[in-house]
């Protein structure tokens, strides 16, 4: 049971997902700082309110309120996040893929990746060189 859990944790996709989550949380803080520090005050000034959450409120009977400003702040955060994800991640990867497809269609091979040499390959080569040197030495 523990070996299965260890294999699950050591898979690349689990580690990649954890890294993506941590970066996403940090990125959310940056986007919220931009929204709260720049956009909220600007929009709140237009609506003459202290913050965007306090702007565009509608009082309802019974004392509760609808806060359209809070919804607008969430929409701005979403749009900014989506824009940064698109322009920083999606668009460059699409350009890279298009470039690779053009090269492939033009018959230009992609960068050839040489198979990595394993320890067994190196040891075999060393053995063969030692045997070759031993055969070339004059016998005493």
Automatic annotation (TrEMBL):
Subcellular location field: Cell membrane; Membrane
Keyword Transmembrane: yes
Key word NAD present: no
Entry keywords, A to Z: Cell membrane, Ion channel, Ion transport, Membrane, Transmembrane, Transmembrane helix, Transport
Listed GO CC annotations: plasma membrane
Family annotation (SUPFAM superfamilies): Gated mechanosensitive channel (SSF81330)
One Pfam family cited in the UniProt record for this chain: MscL
Residue ranges the record marks as coiled coil: none
Membrane topology: Multi-pass membrane protein
Ranges annotated as spanning the membrane: 14-35, 66-93
GO molecular function, one term: mechanosensitive monoatomic ion channel activity
Assembly and binders: Homopentamer.
Function of the protein: Channel that opens in response to stretch forces in the membrane lipid bilayer. May participate in the regulation of osmotic pressure changes within the cell.
Protein name according to UniProt: Large-conductance mechanosensitive channel
Organism of derivation: Cryobacterium roopkundense
Top-level taxonomy: Bacteria, Bacillati, Actinomycetota, Actinomycetes, Micrococcales
Gene name tied to this protein: mscL
């Amino acid at each position: 049971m523990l070996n299965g859990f260890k294999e699950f944790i050591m898979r690349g996709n689990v580690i990649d997902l954890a890294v993506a989550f941590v970066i996403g949380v940090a990125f959310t803080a940056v986007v919220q700082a931009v929204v709260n520090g720049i956009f909220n005050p600007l929009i709140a000034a237009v609506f003459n309110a202290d913050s965007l959450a306090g702007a565009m409120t509608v009082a309802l009977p019974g004392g509760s309120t609808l806060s359209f400003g809070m919804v607008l702040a969430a929409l701005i955060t979403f749009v900014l996040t989506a824009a940064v994800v698109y322009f920083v991640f999606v668009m460059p990867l699409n350009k890279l893929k298009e470039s690779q497809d053009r090269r492939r269609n033009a018959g230009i091979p992609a960068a050839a990746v040489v198979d990595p040499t394993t320890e067994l390959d190196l040891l075999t080569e060393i053995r063969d060189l030692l045997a070759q040197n031993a055969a070339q030495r004059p016998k005493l």
